[in-house]
Backbone:
């Protein structure tokens, strides 16, 4: 399983770290265009100085890069560079680079080690951890992939200073999720220090990143292949979110923005089905009200989309089983569960409608 290291600078002494973990100094380094520009020169110079043999690969910084065509091109570059099973792959970036890099590492030469160096808040706290790697298909996101656990996850919160505010809020959705599903004291910490964390103030941001990463790691180690429902609780709000992302063509809506909206709907569904009490519902909604959305989301009507249209889109979610939607709900703040029984369409649409009314009536600031 993965070893998670959080620190600044996290890449110091990478040669010694690789040796400790049985990794060779032959590395494919995968960037997107943004992370190559921001971190590439320094990282590659360090690899040269520490005696690494490396092959640099760069992809466009967009969700569309998680595709067979991009993977096929990268396979070709690796083959031409004589990359074999003795190599490993270092993925430097957000969720797209991490997912694509993990997918390539899992499939190239039937599997080479992958090291994740996440550069976004969402990747640091969620997508880089746990070994679920995938590419997209026109009919759905992350439908084709593997379980391929990274040997190392190297997290440096200082990288977050390069992110626009929209990306911080998008990543914060996954951070907040951990408070909802697994740790009420962490929920209280996030509620109290939300502004400090989103402003990247120390020690709050590092504490939030560490806690999130280790909560996910614990859950993953207990249920790596999502066989007993525990790991599925990490998908709180995601059944709604994946439907929204599909309607947004995976372009106009950040994953974290969709998850924020999805968590609101999941809170209402938890309450409407009798699992979550009114006080906990209001506390949860109060925390989610702290999130900010760009004006474009309002103009594109993603905050008040037709509930029937969203429900139809949700049925393309890869996490449905036997053509039934699977919902992660809350019994209380800090305790989630996977609902195994079917939920009536009308109940789902009511939760969507309640979520829309929440956003509209609260007059969310943009």
Residues:
């Amino acid at each position: 399983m993965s070893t998670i290291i959080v620190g600044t600078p996290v890449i110091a002494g990478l040669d010694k770290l690789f040796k400790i973990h049985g990794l060779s100094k032959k590395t494919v380094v995968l960037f997107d265009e943004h992370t190559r520009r921001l971190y590439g020169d320094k990282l590659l110079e360090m690899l040269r100085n520490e005696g690494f043999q490396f092959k640099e690969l760069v992809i466009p910084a967009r969700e569309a890069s998680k595709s067979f065509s991009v993977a096929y091109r990268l396979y070709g570059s690796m083959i031409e560079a004589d990359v074999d099973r003795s190599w490993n792959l270092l993925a430097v970036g957000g969720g797209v680079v991490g997912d694509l890099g993990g997918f390539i590492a899992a499939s190239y030469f039937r599997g080479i080690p992958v090291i994740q160096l996440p550069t976004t808040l969402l990747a640091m706290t969620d997508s880089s951890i746990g070994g679920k790697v995938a590419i997209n298909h026109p009919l759905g996101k992350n439908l084709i992939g593997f379980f391929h656990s990274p040997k190392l996850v190297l997290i440096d919160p200082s990288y977050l200073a390069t992110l626009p505010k929209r990306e911080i809020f998008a990543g914060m959705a996954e951070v907040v999720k951990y408070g909802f599903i697994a740790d009420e004291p962490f929920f209280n910490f996030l509620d109290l220090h939300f502004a400090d964390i989103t402003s990247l103030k120390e020690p709050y941001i590092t504490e939030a990143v560490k806690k999130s990463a280790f909560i996910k790691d614990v859950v993953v180690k207990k249920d790596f292949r999502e066989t007993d429902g525990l790991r599925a609780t990490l998908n709180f709000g995601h059944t709604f979110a994946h439907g929204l992302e599909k309607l947004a063509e995976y372009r106009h809506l950040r994953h974290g923005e969709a998850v924020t909206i999805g968590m609101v709907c999941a809170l209402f569904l938890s309450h409407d089905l009798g699992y979550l009490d009114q006080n906990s519902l209001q506390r949860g909604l109060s925390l989610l009200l702290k999130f900010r959305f760009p004006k474009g989301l309002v103009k594109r009507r993603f905050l008040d989309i037709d509930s029937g249209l969203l429900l139809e889109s949700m049925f393309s979610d890869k996490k449905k089983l036997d053509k039934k939607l699977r919902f992660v709900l809350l019994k209380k703040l800090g305790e989630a569960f996977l609902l195994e029984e079917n939920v009536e369409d009308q109940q789902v649409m009511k939760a969507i409608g309640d979520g829309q009314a929440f956003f509209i009536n609260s007059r969310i600031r943009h």
